């Protein structure tokens, strides 16, 4: 069933119909479609383009369709090309001639631009809400672990000691930036394309300010050709979603490493792990692996839409119908991943003893030993060389810097005194890093306070 049969003398080929139709996926925004139509007809009535009585009758009909879809009384039929055709045809079927006035001064081009915007505008907020809940869990873990030592890594080699609070604090910052990206997108996208018509506006005296206001936009878009062909906001949203996935994927990778038999820094909860069909001993971090894996799928949506858009002349072209399925999939994927990830880290246990033991070996205090020499008058470059010799000595004897005797220290450099042991203890290494952003509990508590205020 079509809205545009007039100038055709032949039926469309069945395969063409299937190829052309979008109703199987754009029915996802039936509610936005009806909401947009309600604002449109309210405005048509106020402007005297149709009578107030007609406007009210159409509004009543549209509301009834919405109600019937939501309560299951009305099934969206895939006989129609798209959700716009379905709603309009159903309205006409139910209200007769008055329903035929709904589409006055409107095109499916501005209609679909509006529907997709309304749909994604809500989803930007929904993703933000998921991120907020994830941040609450991360903050809880930070607060409980300002003195839980672990090795910090560079090149996946032990580097300097940090704490769990500090490590999780890094992810707090990442997801905080993700939220601010979503906020920016929401601001920038919040202009209403309705009234742009097919591409060149209309000759009816539409009140675009009014429809924009009714639909919660900051105002109408300012160029009708751009209005129907702009998909930048989707590209920005998919880019922000890709960045969220990149962050989750890095975090997942760490969880997988920490959960490995070699590291044993954490233990995932049974509810968030899976077993093997053949190896009875296995408890696998499948959730983290799947989150890491699904990252590719979200990147795919971004690259897909960028590619779809790159050669499209102004204004609307049917290529743009391809903006939907990948975007919907990416949104659902990200929301699912953030939510599962949150549950996974909320329930996992830290193996503090292993983490601390790991921080203690591997010379994570070597920088602090060099700093000790600097504080005792040795230039840093020389101190670096001296500690390099200490490390070599320890590697040969298979001990750590803390295990060397003072006499051994002194044979390499006479400057060392008894206070070296305190200077390179794990506690000192962490607690003396006092600058803002560093891992000491003092600095960390200042940041935690800022994080708390941010989440309020
Ligand atoms: N299903 C179309 C889309 O998603 C709706 C707009 C159709 N407009 C048109 N002139 N064919 O883009």
UniProtKB/TrEMBL annotation:
It comes from the Bacteria. This is Argininosuccinate lyase. Pfam families: ASL_C2, Lyase_1. Its main location: cytoplasm. GO terms for biological process: L-arginine biosynthetic process via ornithine. It comes from [Clostridium] fimetarium. It is found in: Cytoplasm. InterPro entries: Arg_succ_lyase_C (IPR029419), Argininosuccinate_lyase (IPR009049), Fumarase/histidase_N (IPR024083), Fumarate_lyase_CS (IPR020557), Fumarate_lyase_fam (IPR000362), Fumarate_lyase_N (IPR022761), L-Aspartase-like (IPR008948). NCBIfam families: argH (TIGR00838). The gene is argH. Belongs to the lyase 1 family. Argininosuccinate lyase subfamily. Pathway: Amino-acid biosynthesis; L-arginine biosynthesis; L-arginine from L-ornithine and carbamoyl phosphate: step 3/3. Transmembrane segments: none annotated.
């Amino acid at each position: 069933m079509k809205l545009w049969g007039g100038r055709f003398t032949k039926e469309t080929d069945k395969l063409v119909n299937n190829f052309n139709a979008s109703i199987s996926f754009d029915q996802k925004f039936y509610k936005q479609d009806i909401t947009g139509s309600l604002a449109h007809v309210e405005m048509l009535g106020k402007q005297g383009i149709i009578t107030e009585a007609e406007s009210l009758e159409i509004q009543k009909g549209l509301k009834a369709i919405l109600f019937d879809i939501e309560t299951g009384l009305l099934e969206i039929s895939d006989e129609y090309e798209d959700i716009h055709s379905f709603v309009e045809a159903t309205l006409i079927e139910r209200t007769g001639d008055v329903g035929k006035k709904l589409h006055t001064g409107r095109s499916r081009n501005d209609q679909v631009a509006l529907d997709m915007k309304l749909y994604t505008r809500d989803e930007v907020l929904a993703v933000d809400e998921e991120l907020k809940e994830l941040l609450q869990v991360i903050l809880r873990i930070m607060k409980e672990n300002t003195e839980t030592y672990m090795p910090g890594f560079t090149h996946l080699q032990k580097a300097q000691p940090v704490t769990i609070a500090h490590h999780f604090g890094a992810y707090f910052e990442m997801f905080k930036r993700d939220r601010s990206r979503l906020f920016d997108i929401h601001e920038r996208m919040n202009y209403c394309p309705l009234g742009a018509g097919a591409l060149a506006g209309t000759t009816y005296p539409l009140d675009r300010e009014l429809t924009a206001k009714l639909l919660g936009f900051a105002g109408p878009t300012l160029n009708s050709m751009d209005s129907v062909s702009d998909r930048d906001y989707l590209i920005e949203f998919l880019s922000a979603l890709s960045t969220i996935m990149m962050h989750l994927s890095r975090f997942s990778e760490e969880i997988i490493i920490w959960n490995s038999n070699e590291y044993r820094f954490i233990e995932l909860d049974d509810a968030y792990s899976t077993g093997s069909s053949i190896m009875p001993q296995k408890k696998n971090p499948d959730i983290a692996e799947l989150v890491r894996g699904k990252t590719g799928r979200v990147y795919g949506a971004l690259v897909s839409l960028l590619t779809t858009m790159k050669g499209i002349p102004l204004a609307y072209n049917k290529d743009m119908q391809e903006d939907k399925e990948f975007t919907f999939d990416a949104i659902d994927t990200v929301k699912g991943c953030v939510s599962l990830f949150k549950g996974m880290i909320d329930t996992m246990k830290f193996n503090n003893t292993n983490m601390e033991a790991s921080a203690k070996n591997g010379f994570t205090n070597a920088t602090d030993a060099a700093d000790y020499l600097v504080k005792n008058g040795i230039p840093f470059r020389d101190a670096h060389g001296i500690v390099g010799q200490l490390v070599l000595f320890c590697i040969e004897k298979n001990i750590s810097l803390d295990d060397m005797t003072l006499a051994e220290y002194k044979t390499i450099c006479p400057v060392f005194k008894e206070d070296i042991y305190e200077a390179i203890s794990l506690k000192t290494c962490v607690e003396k890093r006092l600058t803002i952003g560093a891992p000491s509990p003092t600095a960390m508590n200042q940041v935690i306070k800022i994080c708390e205020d941010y989440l309020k």
